[in-house]
Amino acid sequence: MILRRFMRNVTKQNWLAVGLDLIVVIVGIFLGLQVQSWYDGREAKLQEYKYLENLHQDIEAGVNLISDGLTEQLAIQDGIINILDYYAGDKGLDELTNADCSALALSHKQANPISNLPVAQELISSGNFQIISDERIRRAMSDYVSILDLLSDRRESTQLFMVDMTSLYPEIIDVDLKIARKRLENIPPSHQCHFEAGAHNTLFKNQLAMNSTRQWQLTRTIEEQLASLEKLHHLVDEKLRMSH
Ligand SMILES: [Zn+2]
After folding, report:
1. What angle do CA 60, 62, 63 make, to 5 degrees?
2. Cβ 197 vs Cβ 171: under 8 Å
3. How many A from CA of 52 to the centre of ligand 1?
4. C-alpha 220 to ligand 1 mean position (Å)
5. pTM metric for this prediction
6. Which of 19, 54, 113, 243 could, after both became Cys, cross-link 66 (CB 3.0–4.6 A)?
7. How far is the centre of ligand 1, averaged over its atoms, from the C-alpha of 33 (Å)?
8. For the chain, which ranges sit under pLDDT 50?
9. Are the CB atoms for 27 and 5 separated by under 8 Å?
10. How far is the CA of 114 from the centre of ligand 1 (A)?
11. Could you tell me which of 208, 205, 211 has the C-alpha nearest to residue 162?
12. Per-residue pLDDT, 1
């Protein structure tokens, strides 16, 4: 209809009406584009919000997982330090406990609290990373993923040098033979340790001390991982206006 009226005005050489028709069309196109752009912006914001909510759930699960792993790792580390203190003459035999004996049996074990944050991985691999508008959150996510790579490299290299003391020193550690049954029943195993038998075994003490330094290195990385995830958590909380 506008086109027919426009052509009639051109034929009649009514240039004022032609000009007004052109203005109406241009304003219409402009408003249409504005509405489309507002709609696209709103859709992008909703999508970002959804991603951040899912990311927040991943982060909370990750923080719990890493904290549990760190507690486990620190308990092993503390136990090994107590035993080494005994061999150094700084602790009495009666001060060593069953928990220290468990730590000796697990001195080669590394907690494995890998939390990959599936949402962050999906955003990075799908190229949708830019949907997160806050640059600080994007950077914190990248930093966290880099720490995971570092942790995995460090775990692989330290694992090569960790020594399983239970298989090398049966005269010092009697492994609880019901260990598998107790695991099934969720009961902690109770190994028996004859710490005094290791007092004059330099190889045993050296290997235990070296296991302890490797445990220490890994603990530092897990602490870095937790700090990095908590930083990301803080930024996401801020964006979602959440407080805990
Ligand atoms: Zn939170």
Report:
1. 65
2. yes
3. 11
4. 24
5. 0.78
6. 113
7. 37
8. none
9. no
10. 19
11. 211
12. 65
